[in-house]
Amino acid sequence: MLDIRDLAFGYGARAVGTGLTLTLEPGEALCLLGPNGGGKTTLFKTLLGLLRPLAGRVLLDGTDLATLPRRAIAQAIAYVPQAHAALFPFSVRDVVLMGRASRLSAFASPGPADRAAAERALAALGIGHLAERIYTEISGGERQLALIARALAGEPRLLVMDEPTASLDFGNQARVLSQIRRLSDLGIAVVLSTHDPGHAFLCADRVALLHGGRLVALGPPAETVTPDSLRLLYGVEVAVVPLPEQGRTVCTPLIG
Ligand SMILES: Nc1ncnc2c1ncn2[C@@H]1O[C@H](COP(=O)(O)OP(=O)(O)OP(=O)(O)O)[C@@H](O)[C@H]1O
């Protein structure tokens, strides 16, 4: 559904990344790893159509993003920001309902179909019990789930998530990662960034490693997340340890 061809992305004349080529299938979860300042957010802004490619193309179902109306992009691709403290005390239900904005005509109010979509999104994320709570009065983890529900309410086909586990405690990280797996099981493609390479093993079908403005590796977690690739990315020694009994792999930096 998403086809990125020889993309250069950045700001003005300054390229942050170049030569990026990859495709994303419906229901695929792609984890983007890279150091601070590596260009993950800039790439996301380009995929959302907020920044124009400096070169190359981004195709959504075969159509160049640059030729699509903003509304069509917003209906297909939803962005999940990091959970933040909102300024206004909306209920969680109303925050989730805001995810329908791209589906409403100008000045229209949400109707029964919009409310039903919001309820489905709340249920899918398992946060129906929070619907009446005030968004500014729930925890960071609950807010992150509410933001994912908001994105889901718009019935997108691709979710772009910038560090969805940042600032979450261990339990909420696990909850968000397992929700990402469920979304991709529902056929929704997900692109997420994280600073924890272990997360790639928990939720991603494929991993893209961004370093020095280039895609240095792209493939299944077991093939791409290795001590060598993590040394290149982060400049530290990392042990990548399979847990055969759990069918999992964990990453830990080797310090001291
Ligand atoms: N609005 C902007 N105008 C110009 N340059 C920018 C802008 N925003 C970010 N940059 C630069 O683009 C480069 C990539 O930044 P970006 O935020 O995309 O990295 P990132 O991988 O998301 O980093 P982090 O992991 O720290 O969030 C950095 O050198 C940054 O200073």
From TrEMBL:
Pfam families: ABC_tran. It comes from the Bacteria. Residues 2-237 form the ABC transporter domain. Keywords: ATP-binding, Nucleotide-binding. GO terms for molecular function: ATP binding. CDD domains: ABC_Iron-Siderophores_B12_Hemin. PANTHER family: ABC TRANSPORTER ATP-BINDING PROTEIN, HEMIN IMPORT ATP-BINDING PROTEIN HMUV. Belongs to the ABC transporter superfamily. This is ABC transporter ATP-binding protein. It comes from Methylorubrum zatmanii. The lineage of its organism: Bacteria, Pseudomonadati, Pseudomonadota, Alphaproteobacteria, Hyphomicrobiales.
